[in-house]
Design a protein that fits this description.
With 135 residues, the chain is an all-alpha fold. The protein has two domains: 34 residues; 80 residues, no CATH class. The protein has five helices and no strands. 0% of the residues are buried.
Length: 135
């Protein structure tokens, strides 16, 4: 003997539209009564609780403090690229007789890499930013 399992599927209750209309009318009447009975002092009190102007100015200030190291790093990168472009312009503008200028080319290359190393050392040394951004 095997038991047949009857699957009972629960159907959502179908309310009559008249009941839904009555519930909606009661809710709207209650809402209208509450809004009509509120006085100006109540509205002002509610608005003062929802006032976010001080939080917005504080968020802007916090964002500036947090993003300042990033802005400084981007400025340093820009300076590095400008100096490297200037150095490469000097490197690539050799005179007509390159054999006499091999030493000058080597000096330009060395000075470029020294400048690049100094800029990258300054850029990657974020310890000053970490000290400045601690609260």
């Amino acid at each position: 003997m095997t038991k047949k399992s009857k699957s009972k599927s629960k159907k959502p209750k179908q309310y009559e539209p008249q009941y839904l209309l009555i519930i909606l009318a009661v809710v709207l009447l209650l809402e209208g009564f509450l809004m009509g009975s509120a006085e100006i002092a109540d509205w002002q009190s509610g608005l003062s609780m929802l006032d976010m102007s001080s939080a917005i100015s504080e968020a802007v200030t916090d964002t500036i403090v947090v993003m300042q190291p990033v802005v400084d790093a981007i400025k340093t990168i820009d300076t590095f690229y400008q100096e490297s472009a200037t150095a490469m312009t000097e490197l690539l503008s050799l005179p007509e007789n390159p054999f006499d200028q091999i030493l000058q080319l080597t000096e330009y290359t060395n000075s470029f890499y020294e400048s690049a190393a100094e800029e990258l050392t300054t850029l990657l040394d974020l310890s000053s930013f970490a000290r400045a951004s601690t609260f």
